[in-house]
Amino acid sequence: MPLDNMTEHNNRFGLELALGKDQAYPNQYDANLLQPISRSVCREKLPKQDFQGIDIWTGYELSWLDMQGKPNIAIAEFTIPASSPNIIESKSFKYYLNSFNQFQVSSQDRLKDQLQQDLSAAAGAPVEISLTTIDDYIHPPSQLKSFECVDHYPLDTPQYEPRPEVLTRLSDYNGNKQMLCSHLLKSNCPVTNQPDWASVWVMLEGAALTPESFLSYIVGYRGHQDFHENCVEQIFCDLEHALQPTDLWVYARYTRRGGL
Question: 54, CA 20 to 30 Å: which among 83, 121, 128, 191?
């Protein structure tokens, strides 16, 4: 992304990060690295502001020192309620987590308390945190079963911006719950323009999609710039508007970038 476009994005979201410049990762703990962004600004183009759900961030490279200087590692999972007033910009989140790398902490519980205090302050709502050893960690999407993957369907006239008008209702819907997934979701960070890769799962009741139209719609995010949270909320809004289901659930997991 050209630097002037980055500046425009940064001004919109109130960011003050030194994007586009060389910046060293910090080697001492600093909670001020966290950059909150107002959800109301992010959602200004969505037809709704209130969502029932959570944002889940996984920190795959959390490390710190004990009081003797010995390194410790864990995989952290941070759960932020969708009702929180702020999201946390991901680059600042990475810098913050890396600021613990050479920082001594008296215990894992003390580390967890500090993370919870800092992240809750940035999000403006209580953030839940779990710390898991490398050996015990199970990647949550591996537990999702019985979803039909739409990625093998042919794709006619692909376009690379979201087009909710391509979502087509299944005419012979039998009343059963529909469960679809795709591993082809890609969007672009509005701050750095780096690609964000994801899988997405949806469950619908009271209506159903043609799988081909769902694939076409998801591929449309390939050229789209937005935060992870907003993309998932936009998918929810578009499905809700197109189908008016009695029940709708949307879940996406983005792949790690910079350990987060």
Answer: 191
Residue the block writes with tokens 């864990």: 74
Count other C-beta atoms under 10 Å from residue 50's C-beta: 7
- List pLDDT tens digits, range 186-243: 999 988 889 999 999 999 999 999 999 999 999 999 999 999 999 999 999 999 999 9
Instruction: Look up tokens 């929810």; give the residue.
Output: 236
Token pair of 210 as six digits: 């043609």
Whether the CB-CB separation of 204 and 243 falls below 8 Å is answered with yes
CA distance 57 to 191: 18
| Burial of residue 112, with CB atoms counted within 10 A of its CB: 0-12 exposed, 13-18 middle, 19 or more buried | middle
| pLDDT at 27 (0 to 100) | 77
pTM of the model: 0.88
> Under the phi-then-psi rule, with left for phi > 0, alpha for psi from -120 to 50, and beta for the rest, what region is 66?
beta
Q: Under a CB-based contact definition with an 8 Å cutoff, are residues 52 and 82 in contact?
A: yes
pLDDT, one tens digit per residue, over 108-125 is: 999 999 999 999 999 999
Known catalytic residues are 189, 196
Q: Which residues contact 154 (CB under 8 A, 6 or more apart)?
A: 212
Q: What is the largest CA-CA distance in the chain?
A: 66
| Encoded amino acid at 82, one letter | A
